[in-house]
Amino acid sequence: xxxxxxxxxxxxxxxxxxxxxxxxxxxxxxxxxxxxxxxxxxxxxxxxxxxxxxxxxxxxxxxxxxxxxxxxxxxxxxxxxxxxxxxxxxxxxxxxxxxxxxxxxxxxxxxxxxxxxxxxxxxxxxxxxxxxxxxxxxxxxxxxxxxxxxxxxxxxxxxxxxxxxxxxxxxxxxxxxxxxxxxxxxxxxxxxxxxxxxxxxxxxxxxxxxxxxxxxxx
Length: 218
Ligand SMILES: C[S@@+](CC[C@H](N)C(=O)[O-])C[C@H]1O[C@@H](n2cnc3c(N)ncnc32)[C@H](O)[C@@H]1O
Hints:
Blueprint: H1 3-12, H2 24-29, E1 40-44, H3 51-57, E2 61-66, H4 69-79, E3 84-88, E4 91-96, E5 99-103, H5 111-114, E6 119-122, H6 133-144, E7 150-156, H7 171-178, E8 182-191, E9 202-210
Parallel strand pairs: 1-2, 1-6, 2-5, 6-7
Antiparallel strand pairs: 3-4, 4-5, 7-9, 8-9
Bound molecules: S-adenosylmethionine (SAM).
Protein backbone atom coordinates (compact mmCIF):
# COMPACT_ATOMS: atom_id res chain seq x y z
CA UNK A 1 0.00 0.00 0.00
CA UNK A 2 2.28 2.72 -1.22
CA UNK A 3 1.32 6.26 -2.17
CA UNK A 4 0.61 5.16 -5.74
CA UNK A 5 -1.95 2.59 -4.52
CA UNK A 6 -3.98 5.33 -2.82
CA UNK A 7 -3.53 7.93 -5.57
CA UNK A 8 -4.83 5.41 -8.13
CA UNK A 9 -7.84 4.70 -5.90
CA UNK A 10 -8.75 8.38 -5.84
CA UNK A 11 -8.11 8.85 -9.58
CA UNK A 12 -10.29 5.85 -10.49
CA UNK A 13 -12.99 6.72 -7.95
CA UNK A 14 -12.51 3.36 -6.16
CA UNK A 15 -13.31 4.87 -2.78
CA UNK A 16 -15.69 2.39 -1.19
CA UNK A 17 -14.40 3.53 2.22
CA UNK A 18 -15.94 7.00 1.71
CA UNK A 19 -19.31 7.48 3.40
CA UNK A 20 -21.99 9.83 2.14
CA UNK A 21 -22.85 10.78 5.73
CA UNK A 22 -20.95 11.71 8.89
CA UNK A 23 -19.72 8.54 10.56
CA UNK A 24 -22.38 7.31 13.02
CA UNK A 25 -19.70 6.17 15.46
CA UNK A 26 -18.28 9.70 15.59
CA UNK A 27 -21.76 11.12 16.06
CA UNK A 28 -22.52 8.62 18.86
CA UNK A 29 -19.24 8.96 20.74
CA UNK A 30 -17.86 12.43 20.08
CA UNK A 31 -19.15 13.67 23.45
CA UNK A 32 -16.96 11.08 25.22
CA UNK A 33 -13.95 13.24 24.31
CA UNK A 34 -15.34 15.95 26.57
CA UNK A 35 -14.03 18.75 24.36
CA UNK A 36 -14.63 22.44 25.01
CA UNK A 37 -16.26 24.61 22.32
CA UNK A 38 -13.71 25.60 19.67
CA UNK A 39 -11.56 22.52 20.24
CA UNK A 40 -9.21 21.50 17.43
CA UNK A 41 -9.63 17.93 16.16
CA UNK A 42 -7.10 16.06 14.00
CA UNK A 43 -8.25 13.58 11.34
CA UNK A 44 -5.25 11.57 10.10
CA UNK A 45 -5.60 10.07 6.59
CA UNK A 46 -8.79 12.08 6.23
CA UNK A 47 -9.70 11.54 2.58
CA UNK A 48 -12.72 13.75 1.94
CA UNK A 49 -14.71 12.45 4.87
CA UNK A 50 -18.00 14.12 5.74
CA UNK A 51 -16.81 14.01 9.35
CA UNK A 52 -14.87 17.22 8.63
CA UNK A 53 -18.06 19.14 7.85
CA UNK A 54 -19.81 17.61 10.85
CA UNK A 55 -17.04 18.76 13.20
CA UNK A 56 -16.89 22.25 11.64
CA UNK A 57 -20.65 22.55 12.15
CA UNK A 58 -20.05 21.78 15.85
CA UNK A 59 -17.72 24.79 16.11
CA UNK A 60 -14.57 22.67 16.12
CA UNK A 61 -11.44 23.62 14.24
CA UNK A 62 -10.25 20.70 12.10
CA UNK A 63 -6.80 19.59 10.99
CA UNK A 64 -6.40 16.78 8.48
CA UNK A 65 -3.59 14.88 6.81
CA UNK A 66 -4.10 13.27 3.41
CA UNK A 67 -1.85 11.96 0.65
CA UNK A 68 -4.16 12.67 -2.28
CA UNK A 69 -4.47 16.28 -3.46
CA UNK A 70 -7.47 15.16 -5.53
CA UNK A 71 -9.27 14.01 -2.36
CA UNK A 72 -8.46 17.27 -0.61
CA UNK A 73 -9.59 19.38 -3.57
CA UNK A 74 -12.92 17.50 -3.51
CA UNK A 75 -13.16 17.96 0.27
CA UNK A 76 -12.83 21.74 0.05
CA UNK A 77 -15.17 21.91 -2.95
CA UNK A 78 -17.86 19.85 -1.22
CA UNK A 79 -17.57 22.10 1.84
CA UNK A 80 -17.87 25.19 -0.37
CA UNK A 81 -14.48 26.46 0.85
CA UNK A 82 -11.73 27.98 -1.32
CA UNK A 83 -8.36 26.89 0.07
CA UNK A 84 -5.19 28.95 0.33
CA UNK A 85 -2.38 26.57 -0.61
CA UNK A 86 1.17 27.06 0.64
CA UNK A 87 4.26 24.88 0.64
CA UNK A 88 5.22 23.35 3.97
CA UNK A 89 8.52 21.51 3.40
CA UNK A 90 7.63 18.24 1.62
CA UNK A 91 3.92 18.86 2.25
CA UNK A 92 1.32 21.35 1.11
CA UNK A 93 -0.87 23.21 3.56
CA UNK A 94 -4.44 23.80 2.35
CA UNK A 95 -6.48 26.06 4.62
CA UNK A 96 -9.72 27.97 4.79
CA UNK A 97 -11.49 29.34 7.84
CA UNK A 98 -11.21 26.71 10.65
CA UNK A 99 -9.89 23.91 8.40
CA UNK A 100 -6.25 23.04 7.64
CA UNK A 101 -5.30 19.96 5.63
CA UNK A 102 -1.67 18.88 5.32
CA UNK A 103 -1.34 17.25 1.90
CA UNK A 104 1.36 14.62 1.58
CA UNK A 105 2.75 11.72 3.60
CA UNK A 106 1.61 11.87 7.24
CA UNK A 107 5.06 10.68 8.27
CA UNK A 108 6.41 14.04 7.04
CA UNK A 109 3.97 15.93 9.28
CA UNK A 110 5.66 16.92 12.54
CA UNK A 111 4.29 18.48 15.68
CA UNK A 112 5.30 22.04 14.74
CA UNK A 113 3.53 22.00 11.36
CA UNK A 114 0.45 20.27 12.77
CA UNK A 115 0.15 22.67 15.70
CA UNK A 116 -1.68 21.92 18.93
CA UNK A 117 -4.67 19.59 18.70
CA UNK A 118 -7.16 18.72 21.43
CA UNK A 119 -8.17 15.31 20.07
CA UNK A 120 -7.75 12.86 17.22
CA UNK A 121 -10.54 11.02 15.36
CA UNK A 122 -9.07 8.00 13.60
CA UNK A 123 -11.54 6.42 11.21
CA UNK A 124 -10.04 4.14 8.55
CA UNK A 125 -6.50 5.43 9.16
CA UNK A 126 -4.84 2.83 11.42
CA UNK A 127 -6.82 0.06 9.72
CA UNK A 128 -5.77 1.32 6.27
CA UNK A 129 -2.14 0.53 7.01
CA UNK A 130 -0.39 -2.85 6.93
CA UNK A 131 1.86 -4.16 9.61
CA UNK A 132 4.55 -2.96 10.38
CA UNK A 133 3.47 0.50 9.17
CA UNK A 134 0.79 0.51 11.90
CA UNK A 135 3.47 0.49 14.58
CA UNK A 136 5.27 3.39 12.93
CA UNK A 137 1.99 5.25 12.46
CA UNK A 138 0.84 4.83 16.08
CA UNK A 139 4.16 6.09 17.45
CA UNK A 140 4.16 8.99 14.99
CA UNK A 141 0.58 9.96 15.85
CA UNK A 142 1.32 10.00 19.58
CA UNK A 143 4.39 12.18 18.99
CA UNK A 144 2.78 14.56 16.47
CA UNK A 145 -0.30 15.15 18.64
CA UNK A 146 1.53 15.12 22.00
CA UNK A 147 -0.72 12.17 22.93
CA UNK A 148 -3.92 14.13 22.48
CA UNK A 149 -7.02 12.12 23.48
CA UNK A 150 -8.19 9.89 20.69
CA UNK A 151 -11.34 8.24 19.40
CA UNK A 152 -10.36 5.26 17.29
CA UNK A 153 -12.59 3.16 15.06
CA UNK A 154 -11.29 -0.27 14.18
CA UNK A 155 -12.34 -3.49 12.46
CA UNK A 156 -12.01 -7.08 13.51
CA UNK A 157 -12.37 -10.06 11.21
CA UNK A 158 -10.71 -13.34 10.38
CA UNK A 159 -7.64 -12.31 8.32
CA UNK A 160 -7.94 -15.54 6.32
CA UNK A 161 -11.45 -14.59 5.22
CA UNK A 162 -10.56 -11.45 3.26
CA UNK A 163 -7.66 -9.18 2.39
CA UNK A 164 -7.20 -5.59 3.51
CA UNK A 165 -7.31 -2.72 3.49
CA UNK A 166 -9.06 -2.23 5.77
CA UNK A 167 -7.01 -4.60 7.92
CA UNK A 168 -8.31 -6.16 11.11
CA UNK A 169 -6.83 -4.51 14.19
CA UNK A 170 -8.10 -6.35 17.25
CA UNK A 171 -8.07 -5.19 20.85
CA UNK A 172 -4.75 -6.87 21.69
CA UNK A 173 -2.98 -4.97 18.91
CA UNK A 174 -4.65 -1.66 19.82
CA UNK A 175 -3.43 -2.10 23.39
CA UNK A 176 0.05 -3.13 22.24
CA UNK A 177 0.27 -0.01 20.06
CA UNK A 178 -1.23 2.52 22.42
CA UNK A 179 -1.35 1.33 26.04
CA UNK A 180 2.06 2.89 26.73
CA UNK A 181 0.67 6.35 26.02
CA UNK A 182 -3.05 5.96 26.71
CA UNK A 183 -5.66 4.39 28.91
CA UNK A 184 -7.69 2.43 26.38
CA UNK A 185 -11.43 1.98 26.93
CA UNK A 186 -13.89 0.14 24.69
CA UNK A 187 -16.95 2.26 23.84
CA UNK A 188 -18.71 0.06 21.33
CA UNK A 189 -18.41 -3.19 19.42
CA UNK A 190 -20.98 -4.26 16.82
CA UNK A 191 -21.39 -5.96 13.46
CA UNK A 192 -20.16 -3.58 10.78
CA UNK A 193 -22.89 -1.89 8.77
CA UNK A 194 -20.78 0.53 6.73
CA UNK A 195 -19.21 0.23 3.28
CA UNK A 196 -17.06 -2.72 4.31
CA UNK A 197 -20.44 -4.38 5.05
CA UNK A 198 -19.16 -7.96 4.86
CA UNK A 199 -20.50 -10.76 7.01
CA UNK A 200 -18.42 -11.48 10.08
CA UNK A 201 -16.81 -8.04 10.30
CA UNK A 202 -17.02 -6.32 13.66
CA UNK A 203 -16.44 -2.62 14.10
CA UNK A 204 -15.27 -1.20 17.39
CA UNK A 205 -14.74 2.23 18.89
CA UNK A 206 -12.11 3.03 21.49
CA UNK A 207 -11.61 6.05 23.72
CA UNK A 208 -7.97 6.69 24.51
CA UNK A 209 -7.05 9.23 27.15
CA UNK A 210 -3.42 10.07 27.88
CA UNK A 211 -1.89 8.41 30.89
CA UNK A 212 -1.41 11.10 33.49
CA UNK A 213 -4.65 12.91 32.59
CA UNK A 214 -7.23 12.97 35.39
CA UNK A 215 -9.76 10.10 35.25
CA UNK A 216 -13.30 11.39 34.79
CA UNK A 217 -16.30 9.33 35.79
CA UNK A 218 -18.89 8.79 33.05
C1 LIG B 1 -9.30 4.11 3.87
S1 LIG B 1 -9.08 5.78 3.41
C2 LIG B 1 -9.94 6.60 4.75
C3 LIG B 1 -10.27 8.03 4.47
C4 LIG B 1 -11.09 8.71 5.56
N1 LIG B 1 -10.47 8.60 6.87
C5 LIG B 1 -12.51 8.20 5.61
O1 LIG B 1 -12.93 7.74 6.67
O2 LIG B 1 -13.19 8.28 4.58
C6 LIG B 1 -7.37 6.03 3.78
C7 LIG B 1 -6.87 7.36 3.28
O3 LIG B 1 -5.52 7.53 3.70
C8 LIG B 1 -4.78 8.17 2.70
N2 LIG B 1 -3.38 7.80 2.98
C9 LIG B 1 -2.80 6.59 2.85
N3 LIG B 1 -1.52 6.59 3.24
C10 LIG B 1 -1.26 7.87 3.65
C11 LIG B 1 -0.11 8.52 4.17
N4 LIG B 1 1.05 7.87 4.36
N5 LIG B 1 -0.20 9.84 4.49
C12 LIG B 1 -1.36 10.52 4.31
N6 LIG B 1 -2.50 9.94 3.82
C13 LIG B 1 -2.45 8.64 3.49
C14 LIG B 1 -5.37 7.64 1.40
O4 LIG B 1 -5.14 8.46 0.31
C15 LIG B 1 -6.86 7.52 1.77
O5 LIG B 1 -7.56 8.68 1.42
